[in-house]
Amino acid sequence: MNKLSIKNKKIGLVLSGGGVRGMAHIGVIKAMEEFNLSAELVSGSSVGALVGALYANGNSIEEMLRFFKETPLFKYNFFTIAKPGLIDTEKYMPIFRRYFPQDSFEALKKQLSVVATNLEEGNQEFISKGELIKPLLASAALPPVFSPVNYKDKLYADGGIMNNFPSEPLKNKVDFVIGSNVSIVSKLGKRDLNNSLQLTGRTTGLMVYAINKEKIEQCDLVIEPQALEKIGMLDRSGIEKAFNIGYDRACWTLDKVLS
Question: With contact defined as beta carbons under 8 Å apart, do 32 and 166 qualify?
């Protein structure tokens, strides 16, 4: 690999969607800190939006991990029959308020942009001002598990539906873009594709990667830990493993490319 110089450059960080695999983003941020790298602008989709918000909020690595470990994916009184989806996404608002009490993009220490899908209009929207918590919940509301979020009188869902790698908000605003992509595509064997769930996951992953491939390749530096593909999107037992995979891969990459 050729050596890169980032000294005195304004850094932007893109964080993809990818469920529990997104804990690798926290590992990437830890590695960046150890290499004295700090992003001024952050853009995220789905779990990338949540990690990005915690990073922009100034939370420590330990606090970021605690947020995901203590936030339940499935809680009996979060289930809903009154809304589309299994889980009422807005039930998570009190948990988010503990971390973001001011509920405002402007209160963050770094500039953050998140993407969510406007289900009614059929388009993606980048949100970077005003109310914070509802856009975060919307960006991570993966259907059909989580219900859409009512934000500004419209229904919004997971940003990854239309844009799983939202690098657009950083265009012409930073000097150097680091991309952390956890929706990776690695080689699989036949035994990894022997049931409908595995096949569905693989085909969905391929479609998402193909749509975002060009944007990923345009980053100045990309971190894509291939080992993440063996961690289930909603497998909470994989939180620490995904974090460590992301950290190890980021350390290896940064050590190789930085002068």
Answer: no
Percentages (nearest 5) of helix, strand, coil residues in the chain: 45, 15, 35
Tell me which DSSP letter residue 239 carries.
H
Nearest to 43 by CA among 189, 174, 153, 234: 174
Q: Is 24 exposed, middle or buried (0-12, 13-18, 19+ CB in 10 A)?
A: buried
Angle among Cα 196, 202, 155 to the nearest 5 degrees reads: 90
- Using one digit for the tens of pLDDT, what is the confidence trace for 101-155? 999 999 999 999 999 999 999 999 999 999 999 999 999 998 888 999 999 999 9
Q: How many whole angstroms separate alpha carbon 184 and alpha carbon 164?
A: 11
Region of residue 111 (phi > 0: left; psi between -120 and 50: alpha; otherwise: beta): beta
